[in-house]
Amino acid sequence: MATSIPLDRINASTSDLEQAESPYAQEPGQSVAPTPVRSASPSPPIPDDEREVQSLPPADRGRDAWLFLLGATIIETTVWGLLNAVGILQNYWSTERFPGDEATVTLATSLMNGLSYMSAGFFGPLFAAFPHQTKIIQIAGLVVSTIGLIASAFVSNPSQLIGTVGIMFPFSAALYLPCATMIYEWFYEYRGRATGIMFAGTGVGGTVFPDPS
């Protein structure tokens, strides 16, 4: 024979079970403070006059682009023009300064040209690894190569030419290499004209530097 359970006992048991399973269950008579709900308010927009917007100088035109081309052409003329005229120096060193020791002089001038071309394999990754130090590397190359070139005028034996013009002067490639790469950033429409002007400095230097006498 089935027995009936009062409805009020079922409701009381259900209420006790929900209170036991709830993580916020409290003792009778205690009140729980409501959790404040924070409204997500968007951050105020930054005024346009307070934003730091750094625009790049225009390519193919403007004072900065043509000043870069002028400086790059002067560097091209100085560095590679002297390398193209090194035969005059070799003849002078071999016949007037150190006659009878042409082998050492030839080694020095060969290192001067060879290391200048090969140094791109060293300075290229260096500039790529430290792009923000480009000017510092250029200045260091300028200082080292200038010291080597000036010191070559005071050497007392041909072996010293190996250290001065053969090893120290090729550091001038650190001064020149960024000019050959950054010209593609300064010029787009007139890139052919700009590179032609810059590389023409090699021929100009090779023509002007040798003594016409």
From TrEMBL:
<dbReference type="InterPro" id="IPR036259">
    <property type="entry name" value="MFS_trans_sf"/>
</dbReference>
<protein>
    <recommendedName>
        <fullName>Major facilitator superfamily (MFS) profile domain-containing protein</fullName>
    </recommendedName>
</protein>
<feature type="transmembrane region" description="Helical">
    <location>
        <begin position="65"/>
        <end position="83"/>
    </location>
</feature>
<keyword id="KW-1133">Transmembrane helix</keyword>
<feature type="compositionally biased region" description="Polar residues">
    <location>
        <begin position="28"/>
        <end position="41"/>
    </location>
</feature>
<dbReference type="InterPro" id="IPR050327">
    <property type="entry name" value="Proton-linked_MCT"/>
</dbReference>
<feature type="region of interest" description="Disordered">
    <location>
        <begin position="1"/>
        <end position="57"/>
    </location>
</feature>
<feature type="transmembrane region" description="Helical">
    <location>
        <begin position="136"/>
        <end position="155"/>
    </location>
</feature>
<keyword id="KW-0812">Transmembrane</keyword>
<keyword id="KW-0472">Membrane</keyword>
<feature type="transmembrane region" description="Helical">
    <location>
        <begin position="161"/>
        <end position="184"/>
    </location>
</feature>
<feature type="transmembrane region" description="Helical">
    <location>
        <begin position="103"/>
        <end position="124"/>
    </location>
</feature>
